[in-house]
Amino acid sequence: MLKVGVLGAGHLGKIHLRLLNQSQKYNLVGFYDPNNENAEKVAAEFGYQKFNTISELIAAVDVVDIVTPTLSHYDCAKEAIQAGKHVFIEKPISNTIEEAEELITLTKKHNVKGQVGHVERFNPAFIATKNMIVNPMFIETHRLAEFNPRGTDVPVVLDLMIHDIDAILSVVKSKVKSINASGVSVISDTPDIANARIEFENGCVANLTSSRISLKNMRKSRFFQKDAYISVDFLDKVCEVVKMKDAPEVPGDFDMILQNAEGVKKQIYFENPDVESNNAILDELETFADAINNNTTPVVTLEDGTEALRIAYQIIDCFKK
Questions:
Q1: Which of 112, 139, 165 is the last residue of a domain?
Q2: What range defines the domain where residue 13 resides?
Q3: Cα 309–311–315 angle (5° rounding)?
Q4: Phi-psi region at 84: left, alpha or beta (left = phi > 0; alpha = psi -120 to 50)
Q5: Residues 68-124 pLDDT 10s
């Protein structure tokens, strides 16, 4: 089992601690949190070993799980990587592109692995449909959340939209051609609601909307491609797949047939992929353990995390124009 330690024992950090403690692939050594009062409370309540410094924790483990505020991701990851430790970094990978690119360079230099916590890649509804998403030409996403002061120190693009950016980049195998976007600050000092239109070189267009001042929560993505429509509900973990094929010469009584202006007839049919229940956070952590043990590529590489961050900042730059 890999010895793992967690940096950061806030809301998400405590979730990581609990899951790593349950995992059969990790041996949870302990955690570090700069807020000593919080650290003492977590140690007393759950029995996890509290370390007094980041360096002491890093020295005691094989893998460092970084669940700290984004501004500290780079410094924490750099110290861990230079000590020869593998790093799991919660999204976004870092505060700047330059920091992210340096982390990639360091992992190669020190021959360690890194993964970014883009957890929606492990959403069971997305997993169930991902192999069906082939060359999508139009994508629409809505990620809406009720207001929560936690996370408002960064634009909604880095807080929420980056999940959909990463998911889209994982299925569209083409370079980004152009980006247009607008954002509005309603409550926070940074934009609370944003819309972006990403055009890819292969002709695909993605329209993304994110808000953290919505009256209800929604996390839906719709993928349109030749002869298929695929809907993924990341919140309720359900999916819908509608496909078309050439209509039979003699349709059945219950066949759904469409005929276009040219007289071509298509039959509509539905597929219901099996959505297997899972714990996405546990899965992302354990697949990282598999990548380390088997010397394979992590599901969400540091390069993936960097590209998602790059597109996010290009969207944010549009707000200033």
A1: 112
A2: 2-112
A3: 115
A4: left
A5: 999 999 999 999 999 999 999 999 999 999 999 999 999 999 999 999 999 999 999
| CB-based contacts of 192, cutoff 8 Å, min separation 6 | 147, 152, 156, 184, 185, 186, 211, 212, 213
Distance CA 185, CA 155 (A): 9
Q: What is the pLDDT of residue 271?
A: 86
* Residue 37, both tokens: 């009062």
Measured in whole angstroms, the distance separating CA 128 from the mean position of its chain's CA atoms is 16
Q: What is the Cα–Cα distance from 299 to 278, expressed in whole angstroms? A: 16
Q: Are 33 and 57 in contact (CB under 8 A)?
A: no
* Same domain membership, residue 102 and residue 230: no
Half-sphere exposure of 217 (CA within 13 A, CB side): 8
pTM of structure: 0.92
CA distances from 260 to 187, 265, 267, 269, 270 (A): 48, 7, 12, 17, 20
DSSP code at position 70:
G
Q: What phi and psi, each to the nearest 5 degrees, are found at residue 8?
A: 105, 120
241-278 per-position pLDDT tens digit? 998 777 777 777 667 777 777 777 777 878 889 999 99
Give percent of the chain with pLDDT exceeding 90. Answer: 83
Same domain for 86 and 33? Answer: yes
Please state, in angstroms and rounded to a whole number, the distance separating the CA atoms of residues 227 and 30. Answer: 51
Domains in the chain, number: 2
Residues 100 and 159 in one domain: no
Question: Contact at 8 Å (CB) between 26 and 289?
Answer: yes
Residues in a beta bridge with 262: none
Claim to verify: residue 88 and residue 137 sit in the same structural domain: no
Q: Residue 220's domain is classified under what CATH number?
A: 3.30.360.10
Which H or E run contains 209? strand 205-211
Domain annotation covers residue 289:
no
